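hey m, so remember when u said the C-alpha coordinates were messed up on ur end? i reran from scratch. heres the input so u can diff it against urs
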Amino acid sequence: MTDSVATEADWDRAPGLLEGAKELTLGPRECDLAYWITEVAQGTLRDRGRTGHHRDATVPAFLTEPGPLREALIQEFGLRALSEELATRLLGQYVTLAPGIPEMEFYATQLIDEARHARVFREHLVELGQPADTLVRDIDEMAADYRRRVLKPVEDFANDIVREQRDFAGGVAVFAIVIEGVLAPAAELSERKWTPLSPATGEISRGTAIDEIRHLTVASTILRDHVAAHPEYRPRLLEILRAGVRLWDEVPDREFVIPREELFQEGMLRHADLIGDYELWPGVRMLDTTPEQRYEMAEAWTDELAEARMAYMGLPLEVLSGAGEAGA
Protein backbone atom coordinates (compact mmCIF):
# COMPACT_ATOMS: atom_id res chain seq x y z
CA MET A 1 0.00 0.00 0.00
CA THR A 2 1.00 3.62 -0.42
CA ASP A 3 0.03 6.85 1.25
CA SER A 4 -2.21 7.59 -1.75
CA VAL A 5 -4.77 5.08 -0.44
CA ALA A 6 -7.21 6.48 2.14
CA THR A 7 -6.18 5.44 5.64
CA GLU A 8 -9.43 3.64 6.40
CA ALA A 9 -9.04 1.54 3.22
CA ASP A 10 -5.31 0.88 3.51
CA TRP A 11 -4.53 -2.72 4.44
CA ASP A 12 -1.75 -1.81 6.85
CA ARG A 13 -3.06 1.47 8.27
CA ALA A 14 -6.83 0.91 8.56
CA PRO A 15 -8.06 0.67 12.15
CA GLY A 16 -9.70 -2.41 13.57
CA LEU A 17 -13.40 -2.79 12.92
CA LEU A 18 -14.56 -1.67 16.36
CA GLU A 19 -12.24 1.31 16.53
CA GLY A 20 -13.04 2.42 13.01
CA ALA A 21 -16.79 1.96 13.25
CA LYS A 22 -16.90 3.87 16.54
CA GLU A 23 -14.61 6.76 15.63
CA LEU A 24 -14.57 7.40 11.87
CA THR A 25 -16.95 9.73 10.05
CA LEU A 26 -17.70 8.87 6.42
CA GLY A 27 -20.61 9.74 4.17
CA PRO A 28 -22.03 8.57 0.83
CA ARG A 29 -20.58 11.55 -1.06
CA GLU A 30 -17.06 10.57 0.04
CA CYS A 31 -17.58 6.83 -0.47
CA ASP A 32 -18.93 6.98 -3.98
CA LEU A 33 -18.20 4.72 -6.94
CA ALA A 34 -14.91 6.45 -7.74
CA TYR A 35 -13.80 5.98 -4.12
CA TRP A 36 -14.60 2.27 -4.29
CA ILE A 37 -12.68 1.78 -7.54
CA THR A 38 -9.57 3.63 -6.37
CA GLU A 39 -9.45 3.06 -2.62
CA VAL A 40 -11.07 -0.38 -2.33
CA ALA A 41 -10.61 -2.29 -5.58
CA GLN A 42 -7.14 -0.83 -6.22
CA GLY A 43 -6.28 -0.30 -2.55
CA THR A 44 -7.68 -2.70 0.02
CA LEU A 45 -7.97 -5.56 -2.45
CA ARG A 46 -4.66 -5.13 -4.21
CA ASP A 47 -3.07 -8.61 -4.51
CA ARG A 48 -6.06 -10.05 -2.63
CA GLY A 49 -8.88 -9.73 -5.13
CA ARG A 50 -9.40 -13.39 -5.94
CA THR A 51 -9.16 -15.15 -2.58
CA GLY A 52 -9.37 -12.33 -0.06
CA HIS A 53 -5.83 -13.00 1.12
CA HIS A 54 -2.33 -12.48 -0.23
CA ARG A 55 -0.70 -15.47 -1.91
CA ASP A 56 1.96 -15.44 0.81
CA ALA A 57 -0.70 -15.83 3.50
CA THR A 58 -1.05 -19.59 3.58
CA VAL A 59 -3.53 -22.12 4.94
CA PRO A 60 -1.86 -24.37 7.54
CA ALA A 61 -1.90 -28.08 6.80
CA PHE A 62 -3.91 -28.94 9.92
CA LEU A 63 -6.89 -26.99 8.56
CA THR A 64 -7.01 -29.24 5.51
CA GLU A 65 -7.28 -32.37 7.69
CA PRO A 66 -10.22 -33.56 9.80
CA GLY A 67 -10.28 -32.00 13.24
CA PRO A 68 -12.19 -29.62 15.49
CA LEU A 69 -10.54 -26.44 14.18
CA ARG A 70 -11.34 -27.33 10.59
CA GLU A 71 -14.93 -28.17 11.51
CA ALA A 72 -15.29 -24.91 13.47
CA LEU A 73 -14.03 -22.91 10.49
CA ILE A 74 -16.29 -24.74 8.03
CA GLN A 75 -19.29 -23.98 10.21
CA GLU A 76 -18.31 -20.35 10.77
CA PHE A 77 -17.45 -19.45 7.19
CA GLY A 78 -20.32 -21.52 5.81
CA LEU A 79 -22.85 -19.58 7.85
CA ARG A 80 -21.13 -16.28 7.11
CA ALA A 81 -21.17 -17.05 3.38
CA LEU A 82 -24.90 -17.69 3.53
CA SER A 83 -25.48 -14.50 5.54
CA GLU A 84 -23.50 -12.43 3.05
CA GLU A 85 -25.42 -13.95 0.14
CA LEU A 86 -28.66 -12.90 1.80
CA ALA A 87 -27.25 -9.41 2.36
CA THR A 88 -26.30 -9.13 -1.32
CA ARG A 89 -29.79 -10.03 -2.47
CA LEU A 90 -31.40 -7.57 -0.04
CA LEU A 91 -29.15 -4.71 -1.12
CA GLY A 92 -30.42 -4.76 -4.69
CA GLN A 93 -33.58 -3.13 -3.33
CA TYR A 94 -31.54 -0.40 -1.63
CA VAL A 95 -30.00 0.56 -4.95
CA THR A 96 -33.48 0.85 -6.46
CA LEU A 97 -34.89 2.92 -3.58
CA ALA A 98 -31.89 5.21 -3.06
CA PRO A 99 -33.12 8.83 -3.05
CA GLY A 100 -30.03 10.30 -4.71
CA ILE A 101 -26.99 9.39 -6.78
CA PRO A 102 -24.54 9.33 -3.80
CA GLU A 103 -26.72 6.84 -1.93
CA MET A 104 -27.31 4.77 -5.06
CA GLU A 105 -23.59 4.55 -5.81
CA PHE A 106 -22.70 3.73 -2.22
CA TYR A 107 -25.20 0.87 -1.97
CA ALA A 108 -24.15 -0.43 -5.37
CA THR A 109 -20.62 -0.72 -3.98
CA GLN A 110 -21.84 -2.30 -0.75
CA LEU A 111 -23.75 -4.86 -2.81
CA ILE A 112 -20.46 -5.78 -4.52
CA ASP A 113 -18.70 -5.88 -1.14
CA GLU A 114 -21.20 -8.33 0.31
CA ALA A 115 -21.13 -10.52 -2.79
CA ARG A 116 -17.33 -10.57 -2.57
CA HIS A 117 -17.47 -11.51 1.11
CA ALA A 118 -19.76 -14.44 0.37
CA ARG A 119 -17.44 -15.55 -2.43
CA VAL A 120 -14.21 -15.42 -0.42
CA PHE A 121 -15.81 -17.29 2.48
CA ARG A 122 -16.91 -20.02 0.06
CA GLU A 123 -13.57 -20.11 -1.74
CA HIS A 124 -11.75 -20.44 1.56
CA LEU A 125 -13.72 -23.58 2.30
CA VAL A 126 -12.48 -24.94 -1.03
CA GLU A 127 -8.95 -24.11 0.10
CA LEU A 128 -9.64 -26.26 3.16
CA GLY A 129 -10.51 -29.16 0.88
CA GLN A 130 -14.28 -28.88 0.58
CA PRO A 131 -15.47 -30.01 -2.89
CA ALA A 132 -16.11 -26.98 -5.09
CA ASP A 133 -18.73 -28.64 -7.27
CA THR A 134 -21.14 -29.26 -4.40
CA LEU A 135 -20.10 -26.45 -2.07
CA VAL A 136 -23.19 -24.25 -2.40
CA ARG A 137 -25.49 -27.22 -1.86
CA ASP A 138 -23.38 -28.45 1.04
CA ILE A 139 -23.56 -25.04 2.74
CA ASP A 140 -27.31 -24.89 2.21
CA GLU A 141 -27.72 -28.31 3.81
CA MET A 142 -25.39 -27.55 6.71
CA ALA A 143 -27.05 -24.18 7.39
CA ALA A 144 -30.68 -25.10 6.73
CA ASP A 145 -31.69 -24.73 10.38
CA TYR A 146 -29.73 -21.48 10.71
CA ARG A 147 -31.37 -20.08 7.60
CA ARG A 148 -34.86 -20.96 8.85
CA ARG A 149 -34.51 -19.91 12.48
CA VAL A 150 -32.09 -16.95 12.29
CA LEU A 151 -31.76 -15.57 8.77
CA LYS A 152 -35.37 -15.93 7.58
CA PRO A 153 -36.90 -13.79 10.38
CA VAL A 154 -34.26 -11.10 9.73
CA GLU A 155 -34.88 -11.28 5.98
CA ASP A 156 -38.64 -10.98 6.45
CA PHE A 157 -38.17 -7.98 8.76
CA ALA A 158 -35.95 -6.18 6.26
CA ASN A 159 -38.17 -7.00 3.29
CA ASP A 160 -41.26 -5.68 5.03
CA ILE A 161 -39.64 -2.27 5.48
CA VAL A 162 -37.75 -2.04 2.20
CA ARG A 163 -39.83 -3.97 -0.32
CA GLU A 164 -43.34 -3.63 1.09
CA GLN A 165 -43.18 -0.20 2.77
CA ARG A 166 -40.47 1.16 0.44
CA ASP A 167 -38.86 3.00 3.35
CA PHE A 168 -35.24 3.65 2.37
CA ALA A 169 -34.14 5.27 5.64
CA GLY A 170 -35.83 2.51 7.60
CA GLY A 171 -34.02 -0.04 5.48
CA VAL A 172 -30.71 1.69 6.19
CA ALA A 173 -31.45 1.43 9.91
CA VAL A 174 -32.36 -2.24 9.66
CA PHE A 175 -29.24 -3.15 7.73
CA ALA A 176 -26.65 -1.04 9.50
CA ILE A 177 -27.84 -0.73 13.07
CA VAL A 178 -29.78 -3.95 13.49
CA ILE A 179 -28.12 -6.51 11.18
CA GLU A 180 -24.53 -5.33 10.72
CA GLY A 181 -24.47 -3.62 14.09
CA VAL A 182 -24.98 -7.00 15.73
CA LEU A 183 -22.88 -9.11 13.35
CA ALA A 184 -19.87 -6.78 13.07
CA PRO A 185 -18.50 -7.55 16.56
CA ALA A 186 -18.68 -11.26 15.75
CA ALA A 187 -16.63 -10.52 12.63
CA GLU A 188 -14.11 -8.66 14.81
CA LEU A 189 -13.84 -11.72 17.04
CA SER A 190 -13.33 -13.94 14.00
CA GLU A 191 -10.41 -11.87 12.77
CA ARG A 192 -8.76 -11.83 16.18
CA LYS A 193 -9.09 -15.53 16.96
CA TRP A 194 -8.00 -16.91 13.57
CA THR A 195 -5.04 -14.58 13.00
CA PRO A 196 -2.49 -16.54 15.08
CA LEU A 197 -3.66 -19.87 13.65
CA SER A 198 -4.10 -19.28 9.93
CA PRO A 199 -2.61 -16.32 8.01
CA ALA A 200 -5.05 -16.81 5.12
CA THR A 201 -8.12 -16.98 7.36
CA GLY A 202 -7.01 -13.95 9.34
CA GLU A 203 -6.48 -11.90 6.19
CA ILE A 204 -9.91 -12.79 4.80
CA SER A 205 -11.51 -11.60 8.02
CA ARG A 206 -9.32 -8.49 8.01
CA GLY A 207 -10.44 -7.52 4.51
CA THR A 208 -14.13 -7.97 5.26
CA ALA A 209 -13.75 -5.96 8.47
CA ILE A 210 -12.25 -3.01 6.58
CA ASP A 211 -15.34 -3.02 4.36
CA GLU A 212 -17.69 -3.20 7.35
CA ILE A 213 -16.17 -0.04 8.83
CA ARG A 214 -17.25 1.82 5.70
CA HIS A 215 -20.71 0.26 5.66
CA LEU A 216 -21.48 1.13 9.27
CA THR A 217 -20.12 4.66 9.24
CA VAL A 218 -21.71 5.74 5.95
CA ALA A 219 -25.09 4.33 6.97
CA SER A 220 -24.90 6.20 10.27
CA THR A 221 -24.22 9.43 8.38
CA ILE A 222 -27.17 8.80 6.06
CA LEU A 223 -29.47 8.31 9.05
CA ARG A 224 -28.08 11.28 10.98
CA ASP A 225 -28.59 13.59 8.01
CA HIS A 226 -32.04 12.18 7.25
CA VAL A 227 -33.31 12.78 10.79
CA ALA A 228 -31.79 16.29 10.79
CA ALA A 229 -33.59 17.11 7.54
CA HIS A 230 -36.81 15.30 8.53
CA PRO A 231 -37.22 15.46 12.31
CA GLU A 232 -40.75 14.09 11.98
CA TYR A 233 -39.15 10.76 10.95
CA ARG A 234 -37.41 10.35 14.31
CA PRO A 235 -40.25 8.43 16.06
CA ARG A 236 -40.50 6.07 13.08
CA LEU A 237 -36.75 5.39 13.18
CA LEU A 238 -36.80 4.71 16.90
CA GLU A 239 -39.67 2.25 16.52
CA ILE A 240 -37.80 0.37 13.78
CA LEU A 241 -34.77 0.11 16.05
CA ARG A 242 -36.92 -1.16 18.94
CA ALA A 243 -38.47 -3.78 16.66
CA GLY A 244 -35.00 -4.83 15.50
CA VAL A 245 -33.83 -5.27 19.09
CA ARG A 246 -36.85 -7.43 19.85
CA LEU A 247 -36.11 -9.51 16.78
CA TRP A 248 -32.49 -10.21 17.80
CA ASP A 249 -33.65 -11.06 21.32
CA GLU A 250 -35.88 -13.73 19.82
CA VAL A 251 -33.63 -15.40 17.23
CA PRO A 252 -31.53 -18.26 18.67
CA ASP A 253 -28.11 -17.22 17.36
CA ARG A 254 -26.37 -18.44 20.53
CA GLU A 255 -27.44 -22.00 19.71
CA PHE A 256 -25.32 -21.86 16.58
CA VAL A 257 -22.35 -19.86 17.90
CA ILE A 258 -21.52 -21.72 21.12
CA PRO A 259 -21.18 -25.23 19.56
CA ARG A 260 -18.66 -24.03 17.00
CA GLU A 261 -16.83 -22.04 19.68
CA GLU A 262 -16.57 -25.28 21.65
CA LEU A 263 -15.01 -26.92 18.60
CA PHE A 264 -12.64 -23.95 18.31
CA GLN A 265 -11.78 -24.33 22.00
CA GLU A 266 -10.81 -27.97 21.56
CA GLY A 267 -8.81 -27.19 18.44
CA MET A 268 -6.93 -24.17 19.78
CA LEU A 269 -5.77 -26.14 22.82
CA ARG A 270 -4.32 -28.75 20.47
CA HIS A 271 -2.31 -26.00 18.79
CA ALA A 272 -1.39 -24.00 21.86
CA ASP A 273 2.22 -23.79 20.65
CA LEU A 274 1.11 -21.60 17.72
CA ILE A 275 -0.89 -19.29 19.94
CA GLY A 276 1.41 -18.87 22.91
CA ASP A 277 0.73 -15.64 24.83
CA TYR A 278 -1.30 -14.05 22.02
CA GLU A 279 -3.97 -11.82 23.58
CA LEU A 280 -7.51 -11.94 22.22
CA TRP A 281 -8.19 -8.62 23.91
CA PRO A 282 -5.87 -6.54 26.11
CA GLY A 283 -4.62 -8.47 29.10
CA VAL A 284 -6.39 -11.72 28.22
CA ARG A 285 -4.61 -14.59 26.49
CA MET A 286 -6.72 -16.39 23.93
CA LEU A 287 -5.73 -19.73 25.46
CA ASP A 288 -7.32 -18.61 28.74
CA THR A 289 -10.72 -17.76 27.24
CA THR A 290 -13.79 -20.00 27.08
CA PRO A 291 -16.52 -20.22 24.42
CA GLU A 292 -18.92 -18.37 26.72
CA GLN A 293 -16.41 -15.60 27.43
CA ARG A 294 -15.78 -15.05 23.73
CA TYR A 295 -19.51 -14.92 23.02
CA GLU A 296 -20.09 -12.49 25.87
CA MET A 297 -17.22 -10.28 24.73
CA ALA A 298 -18.75 -10.05 21.25
CA GLU A 299 -22.01 -8.98 22.91
CA ALA A 300 -20.15 -6.34 24.94
CA TRP A 301 -18.54 -5.04 21.73
CA THR A 302 -22.02 -4.85 20.20
CA ASP A 303 -23.10 -2.57 23.05
CA GLU A 304 -19.99 -0.39 22.68
CA LEU A 305 -20.54 -0.03 18.95
CA ALA A 306 -24.22 0.77 19.40
CA GLU A 307 -23.46 3.44 22.00
CA ALA A 308 -20.99 5.20 19.71
CA ARG A 309 -23.16 5.07 16.59
CA MET A 310 -26.34 6.14 18.39
CA ALA A 311 -24.52 9.10 19.95
CA TYR A 312 -23.22 10.10 16.51
CA MET A 313 -26.77 10.07 15.13
CA GLY A 314 -28.15 11.95 18.13
CA LEU A 315 -30.42 9.07 19.12
CA PRO A 316 -31.04 7.68 22.63
CA LEU A 317 -29.11 4.53 23.45
CA GLU A 318 -32.00 3.34 25.62
CA VAL A 319 -33.90 2.47 22.45
CA LEU A 320 -31.58 -0.49 21.94
CA SER A 321 -32.39 -1.85 25.38
CA GLY A 322 -36.12 -1.70 24.79
CA ALA A 323 -36.73 1.71 26.38
CA GLY A 324 -36.51 5.07 24.65
CA GLU A 325 -38.01 8.52 24.51
CA ALA A 326 -41.45 9.01 25.96
CA GLY A 327 -44.02 9.33 23.25
CA ALA A 328 -41.50 8.42 20.55
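this time it looks ok to me. The chain has one domain: 15-321. if urs says something different then somethings off w ur setup not the seq
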